[in-house]
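Researcher: Here's my situation. A collaborator sent me these components and asked whether they could plausibly form a single complex. I don't have experimental data yet, so a predicted model of the whole assembly would be a useful starting point for our discussion.
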Amino acid sequence: MNKRLGNQTVKILNPVSIISAANVAGKKEGEGPLAMYFDKILSDAAWGEETWEKTESKMQNFAVTNAISRANLKNSDINYILAGDLLNQCISSSFALRDLNIPFFGVYGACSTMAETISLGSMLIDGGFAENVAAVTSSHFCTAERQYRQPLEYGGQRTPNAQWTVTGSGAVILSGSGDGPYITHITTGEIVDMGIKDANNMGAAMAPAAAETLKAHFVETGRQPSYYDLILTGDLGILGKSIMIDLMGDYGYDLRDNYDDCGCLIFDAESQDTHAGGSGCGCSAVTLTGYVMSLISQGKLKNVLFMATGALLSPTSTLQGESIPSIAHAVAISSSREDSGL
Amino acid sequence: MNKRLGNQTVKILNPVSIISAANVAGKKEGEGPLAMYFDKILSDAAWGEETWEKTESKMQNFAVTNAISRANLKNSDINYILAGDLLNQCISSSFALRDLNIPFFGVYGACSTMAETISLGSMLIDGGFAENVAAVTSSHFCTAERQYRQPLEYGGQRTPNAQWTVTGSGAVILSGSGDGPYITHITTGEIVDMGIKDANNMGAAMAPAAAETLKAHFVETGRQPSYYDLILTGDLGILGKSIMIDLMGDYGYDLRDNYDDCGCLIFDAESQDTHAGGSGCGCSAVTLTGYVMSLISQGKLKNVLFMATGALLSPTSTLQGESIPSIAHAVAISSSREDSGL
């Protein structure tokens, strides 16, 4: 089993490339710092649909069908589609993808979904079970807000630590044929629960899970933080990012130079009033498929560690007084096979 | 890619065995026809917990920890755990497994979860990424009823087509070392939505998805129904089973001799007043880990096609007037490598 480097990390031995990516983002996201990296920016929250849930499904369908056509493939060329989202019973995904006629594996990783789908998809390709795999996820501010918190019409106050669920969907096509960027290593998270119970402080709940996964990645690959041009967590937000830097410092890893968080990049917290930053499955999905993929193709980034983070709670578990189990999955991406150590 | 037999079916080339299984079932299930196959039968719905959600997590933890110890393994020997359930945000799984320290992939396949976790787990082992994988799921009548339908205290009437969510959890350990029963083929479902909108008639919604997956399995493997000693769907129930037989008859396959459904086997519909039969992730999980595994070990079954079925709806999608997207995943199990065609 020479693919296994340790308890949590495997090496992808056959080349697996991200051959295309596509995304769509909401109006507010389109007014933020990453606007230039979105394929489509919605002009309102509904996009012509009767309900926000249908809008979210439409976004996910848009992202994945565009990623497929950009790869010059047809639906029938995609062997598996891996998808999930935040809505109860993952309905954004099942309704978005029901007409595609592609074998479907639904996943639930909360906001870690983009990394989870890429992890499993890469292993299915490397394992010889697929040539092309689609990975997609989404979130929508309005569907998440009313499901997890309050009806939007209620106009509830937000706490200073609260994050803003990103309206957006991102998809990638992974392939065994392609010339990069390559998925080179996968470090799969264990569930970490440090006892934090404040559902308005998800960054603090998720940062320890991110730190455990990142530490495992460094130990098992023998890499140091400096190996990467960018280490990118999913949606720890401003507070969680600072906790993450502290935790990794305690483990002896200095993240101050090349670490960032999608939730910090996607909004200008001050001018956009997003408090602790962005969150949601779509936050890391649109940042990866837009910003990261674009900088890699421009040669500005070569080695990236993409680590999406998820809080595995529900409103029911919170009402029952439970703490917040969290998880983080890391995917190492390299623009060349040489740098990937293959 | 000689592992791929067709659009939906792959062959497992390296041996993957189910080296252990364990389950736990509720009181009503313990009064039914499969009682003798359960490792533990609860005496009430709470099992000493304050909420039914915590009970369901406890059941899932019980099933997986017992499966691990029966395999003479430690948690640290399990490379991945794949799990999911019906509750919003899959909290039965995340809370059940948070203390195990095993890399975790959460899945959402509704009641198809047991087949989905075994499918992905088998591919991770065959692909060289894991030696041992745990697959587990659960459902609980009381958590499902209040989430999907009405508060139990409301005492709502049940329609004749309604099914009864099974209280139960089942887990298996898959391994690259073992002497069977072997996972030999995996046929992954596409989402099928025939426009049925009655959330009290899930069997009718899911039967077409099961028929499409089963037809693909026969076409792509070249097998006929008679190859199997038992073809077993997950929770189509009494009505769905009869639709399934009709649909497959239309496709030219006679299922009358060796086909059954876990939802029909688990309860005595007449004496137990369960209307159209059992349902829920736990329905197929306890039937597989109890009844099927037991008959295989006794030599009474050699080749089994296990096909769990899922309805990918939510109460929100139903309220919004949507139909019910459905899916079915099939896993071929053989007691000997010879019969598996390897």
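Model: Some features of this prediction you could bring to your collaborator: The mean pLDDT of chain B is 96. Chain B touches chain A through 64 residues (CB under 8 Å).
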